[in-house]
């Protein structure tokens, strides 16, 4: 066996070992119910901001405290606490990917990724329709409906 | 129906040339294929002439497509969906270009146009390899042309047409106002264009000059990766498995330089204008382009080994083959929408998954097809590829992982056939030879790239095997902890490899030559570790030690290559491209380690509620700080004051004036933000930075008061006070200094009997400054006629005078946050970041110098 082959073997073994240990650190995507089912476990919670519930953020009191309610596609709700200001596009986003743990009765969030319909997809064309035209006739359909096929 | 106000010509011209380019690239590919396979030179000539003609037509067509789309954007023809979706009337010209490549179709066009330009260079400069190389290039062009075709065949969508009309794109389908009789079941109204006043606009985050220049350079890089691949395939196709390397080398170096530059321009953009506070986040989109780049670098090194010693030819074929496959895989990842959950900036799915995958699959199986030596093998492979493509369509959902196996089978077949055709050297490399260590280095780079792409591909594995795996708790660290080890090995190899000779080096000669660089590096590294210090303890001591070792390795690479340039190469820059590039690469390593290891958050919140993240967590509770207008706050060594804001003259952009003052320094930053842009509630902030030679200070606005959301719920607290009395509030006290009453007011609308009262108050805050406040109240016949409110902004106080009786004033005090003007800021310090940027530039320049040298050497051959 050549020296190169020995080195190759060692490196490949190391690479496999590294990947196996990487796979052990992976987590899961969860809904509210499944996230609640595993308290203390780090998960990726997929839900959106429930605009009907109050949102608490007062930059004067504490700029690093955001509390709101998230609702997932199954209609389950959860209280979320995030120790940062609102992430960019928070209001626009259709979906939030929240990384964190369910502890006690809140979801302690470490980071939030916002997913926006408008960022790379189409937006509602009525937005560019002059105001007087839209008030009587136009029902505001959610952008996702209009995006469909391109 | 005739629609009013549409200009259909540019779209028709554009789409016509899409079809021309599709046909011409296929014709060019076939003609070049014939030119490579006919035996007699006189038979070759007509095929070559045809092929060249077809490729030139293809190039012209692509330029016409490009021009047509640009025309549509430039003239704001919103009847075309692309213009409506990506631009608006208010966009400056440079952002019209940005809008051009914001969409998938435009970015594909950018890629295509660079293929054409580079292809013309091959036709002009390399008659020897033109036919087989351009056969591959034209074939790739054919696939890119299908991506902007936009036709349906049996419900299967082929490509996405950039010239589709808005009314035909489905965007208007659910908008009743756009339809006859306000009913979506009816056709679109003929005068609908009168309702489309403006486009959707370019995403404000992309309205940045980097968006104008980064994509063209990146796509030039992407396009250039095709050429080392095409040369390698041409070598296998023609059976000239050794001769191609000389011609491929400058191309590969060009690709390393430009592709690397393009990626790093993206990093610079992220660093300067986005606010994830860094230049690299291991986002799948970033990784997907880094991986083929690493493979290219590995390939360049094994190619050099082969040129000098005859070893490593098979590895070179493999690396140059996979390099391009991973470019296609990157395209698949970023354009198929598969990254939905895991990336912040991948494109959304536009229904081209299947086509993108087919593109990848065909090129995977093109490799064994080219590597095969007999007609029977080729026929078998072509049939297998066709069967597997169709099989994938039906079996992908049935057999988990089937598409992956199809890809892997193609690669394995390629390796087997290539090994059969390409001879290997039986002799073993000496451990004291340069080629041995270069090969190890290339291997480490290659494996590191495979590890990165494996980690990046989690969402793909989820799709393939119907899994639900998400990245780990600390997804960036998952990459860093592995790549720091790679950095150690690569750093050391970069330092020492040049001090070995090809074939073998006498032991004492190597030691003699490496002694000085080793000694100087030890001194420099010790200085950095002891004086500058890296104490990055977030991930534990083990990782910190790895950082220290990697830093030593990086310094070693810097010093050893610099010395090599001046001692062994006697400062000859023209021949020193490699050493210059390696010197730059060493700086990149050192820059990464120092800037990331010593990054500081300046805006630590010390006043807010501190949050316990639980034991063992080193998460810092508050990285954002609220600045009330005019009140200095402490951030690290700075006193920071929010002084005010101003608006952009044309755009809905607000600039915030933030003044930093330390004992030795004083400067103002102007971070900006789009607030509620185009009716979209929310904040889109861009940072502002102050650059020094050894560090950057960097701030962005992370929150602003929202007047509509923060309803003023605070109440006035009323107290009766005489002159000289004190009222306390949460942050200080207020003294009533003077109280004056006056009749016969010299004011209109007031009666002679009305009395005006003024109260002079002094507001004394705990932390020093005091403020004067004068309140006015007018009373007539026992009725309150006028009352002024005074706001002491810096103390968030609202004061009013309610009543005066017998020398006693009723004073109302309200503490309210809604009156305050404030910004919440996040501020960072990035030390030694310029080592990183400087290193990147030097690496690119060194690689280009090297490329030039190889070109000149080829000319002399």
From TrEMBL, chain A:
It is found in: Membrane. One of its GO terms (molecular function) is heme binding. Residues 117-150 are annotated as: Disordered. Signal peptide: none annotated. GO terms for cellular component: plasma membrane. GO terms for biological process: cytochrome complex assembly; protein-heme linkage. Residues 119-136 have a biased composition (Basic and acidic residues). Coiled coil: none annotated. Residues 137-150 have a biased composition (Polar residues). The keyword Repressor does not apply. Keywords: Cytochrome c-type biogenesis, Heme, Iron, Membrane, Metal-binding. This is Cytochrome c-type biogenesis protein CcmE.
From TrEMBL, chain B:
Residues 105-336 form the Cytochrome c assembly protein domain. The chain crosses the membrane at residues 12-33, 54-74, 135-154, 217-237, 249-270, 290-306, 313-332, 352-372, 402-418, 439-461, 481-502, 514-536, 542-566, 578-597, 832-851. The keyword Transmembrane helix applies. GO terms for cellular component: membrane. Residues 421-598 form the Cytochrome c-type biogenesis protein CcmF C-terminal domain. InterPro entries: CcmF_C (IPR032523), Cyt_c_assembly (IPR002541), Cyt_c_biogenesis (IPR003567). The keyword Kinase does not apply. One of its GO terms (biological process) is cytochrome complex assembly. This is Cytochrome c-type biogenesis protein CcmF.
């Amino acid at each position: 066996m050549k020296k190169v082959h020995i080195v190759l073997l060692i490196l490949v073994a190391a690479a496999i070992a590294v990947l196996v240990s990487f796979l052990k650190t992976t987590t899961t995507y969860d809904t509210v119910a499944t996230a609640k089912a595993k308290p203390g476990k780090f998960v990726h919670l997929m839900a959106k901001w429930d605009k009907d519930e109050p949102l608490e953020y007062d930059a004067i009191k504490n700029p690093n405290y955001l509390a709101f309610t998230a609702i997932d596609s199954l209609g389950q709700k959860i209280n979320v606490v995030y120790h940062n200001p609102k992430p960019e596009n928070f209001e626009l986003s259709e979906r939030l990917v929240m990384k964190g743990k369910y502890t006690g009765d809140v979801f302690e969030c470490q980071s939030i990724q916002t997913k926006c319909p408008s960022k790379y997809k189409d937006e509602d064309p009525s937005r560019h329709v002059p105001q007087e035209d839209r008030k009587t006739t136009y029902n505001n359909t959610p952008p996702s409906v209009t995006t469909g096929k391109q | 129906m005739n629609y009013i106000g549409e200009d259909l010509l540019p779209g028709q011209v554009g789409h016509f040339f899409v079809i021309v380019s599709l046909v011409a690239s296929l014709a060019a590919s076939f003609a070049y294929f014939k030119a490579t396979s006919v035996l007699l030179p006189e038979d070759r000539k007509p095929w070559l002439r045809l092929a060249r003609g077809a490729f030139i037509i293809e190039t012209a067509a692509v330029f016409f497509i490009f021009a047509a789309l640009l025309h549509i954007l430039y003239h704001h023809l919103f009847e075309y969906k692309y213009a409506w979706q990506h631009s608006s009337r208010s966009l400056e010209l440079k952002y019209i270009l940005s809008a051009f490549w914001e969409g998938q179709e435009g970015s594909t066009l950018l890629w295509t146009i660079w293929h054409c330009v580079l292809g013309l260079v091959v036709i002009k400069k390399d008659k020897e390899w033109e036919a087989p190389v351009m056969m591959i290039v034209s074939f790739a062009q054919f696939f890119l042309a299908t991506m902007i075709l936009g036709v349906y065949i049996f419900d299967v969508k082929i490509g996405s047409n950039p010239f589709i009309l808005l009314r035909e794109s489905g965007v208007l389908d659910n908008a009743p106002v756009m339809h006859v009789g306000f009913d979506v079941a009816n056709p679109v109204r003929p005068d609908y264009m009168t309702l489309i006043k403006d486009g959707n606009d370019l995403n404000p985050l992309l309205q940045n000059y980097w968006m104008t220049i980064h994509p063209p350079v990146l796509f030039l890089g992407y396009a250039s990766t095709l050429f080392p691949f095409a040369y390698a395939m041409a070598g296998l196709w023609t059976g000239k498995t050794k001769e191609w390397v000389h011609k491929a080398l400058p191309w590969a170096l060009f690709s390393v330089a430009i592709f690397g530059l393009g990626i790093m321009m993206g990093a610079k953009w992220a660093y300067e204008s986005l606010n994830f506070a860094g230049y690299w986040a291991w986002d799948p989109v970033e990784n997907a382009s880094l991986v083929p780049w690493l493979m290219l670098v590995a390939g360049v090194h094994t190619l050099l080994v082969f040129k000098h010693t005859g070893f490593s030819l098979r590895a070179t074929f493999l690396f140059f083959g996979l390099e391009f496959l991973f470019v296609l895989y990157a395209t698949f990842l970023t354009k198929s929408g598969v990254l939905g959950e895991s990336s912040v900036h991948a494109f959304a799915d536009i229904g081209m998954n299947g086509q993108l995958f087919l593109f990848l699959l065909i090129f995977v199986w093109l490799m064994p097809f080219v590597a095969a030596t007999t007609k029977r093998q080729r026929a078998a492979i072509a049939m297998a590829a066709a069967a597997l493509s169709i099989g994938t369509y039906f079996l992908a959902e049935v057999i988990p992982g089937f598409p992956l196996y199809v890809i892997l089978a193609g690669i394995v077949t390629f390796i087997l056939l290539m090994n059969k055709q390409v001879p290997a050297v039986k002799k073993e490399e000496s451990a004291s030879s340069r080629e041995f260590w270069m090969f190890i280095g290339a291997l480490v780079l290659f494996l590191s790239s495979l590890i990165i792409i494996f980690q990046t591909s989690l969402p793909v594995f989820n799709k393939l095997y119907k899994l639900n795996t998400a990245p780990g708790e600390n997804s960036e660290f998952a990459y860093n902890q592995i790549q720091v080890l790679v950095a150690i090995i690569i750093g050391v190899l970069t330092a020492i490899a040049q001090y070995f000779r090809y074939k073998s080096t006498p032991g004492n000669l190597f030691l003699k030559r490496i002694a000085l660089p080793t000694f100087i590096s030890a001194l420099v590294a010790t200085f950095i570790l002891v004086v500058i210090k890296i104490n990055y303890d977030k991930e534990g001591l083990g990782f910190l030690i790895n950082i220290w070792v990697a830093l030593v390795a990086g310094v070693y690479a810097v010093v050893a290559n610099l010395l090599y340039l001046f001692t062994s190469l006697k400062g000859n820059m023209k021949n020193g491209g490699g050493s210059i590039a390696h010197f730059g690469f060493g700086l990149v390593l050192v820059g990464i380690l120092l800037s990331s290891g010593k990054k500081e958050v300046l805006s630590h919140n010390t006043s807010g509620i501190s949050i316990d993240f639980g034991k063992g967590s080193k998460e810092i509770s508050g990285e954002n700080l609220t600045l009330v207008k005019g009140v200095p706050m402490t951030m690290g060594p700075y006193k920071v004051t929010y002084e005010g804001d101003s608006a952009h003259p044309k755009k809905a952009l607000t600039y915030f004036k933030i003044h930093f003052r330390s004992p030795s320094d004083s400067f103002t930053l102007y971070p900006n933000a789009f607030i509620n842009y185009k009716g979209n509630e929310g904040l889109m902030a861009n940072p502002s930075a102050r650059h020094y030679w050894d560090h950057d200070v960097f701030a962005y606005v992370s929150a602003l008061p929202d007047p509509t959301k923060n309803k003023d719920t605070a109440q006035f607290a009323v107290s009766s006070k005489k002159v000289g009395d004190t009222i306390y509030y949460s942050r200080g006290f207020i003294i009533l200094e003077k109280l004056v009453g006056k009749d016969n007011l010299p004011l209109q609308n007031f009666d002679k009997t009305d009395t005006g009262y003024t109260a002079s108050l002094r507001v004394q805050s705990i932390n020093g400054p005091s403020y004067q406040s004068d309140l006015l109240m007018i009373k007539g016949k026992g009725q309150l006629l006028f009352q002024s409110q005074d706001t002491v902004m810096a103390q968030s106080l609202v004061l009013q005078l309610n009543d005066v009786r017998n020398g006693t004033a009723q004073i109302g005090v309200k503490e309210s946050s809604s009156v305050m003007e404030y910004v919440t800021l996040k501020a960072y310090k990035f030390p030694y970041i310029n080592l990183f940027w400087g290193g990147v530039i030097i690496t690119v320049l060194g690689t280009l110098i090297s490329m030039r040298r190889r070109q000149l050497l080829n000319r002399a051959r």
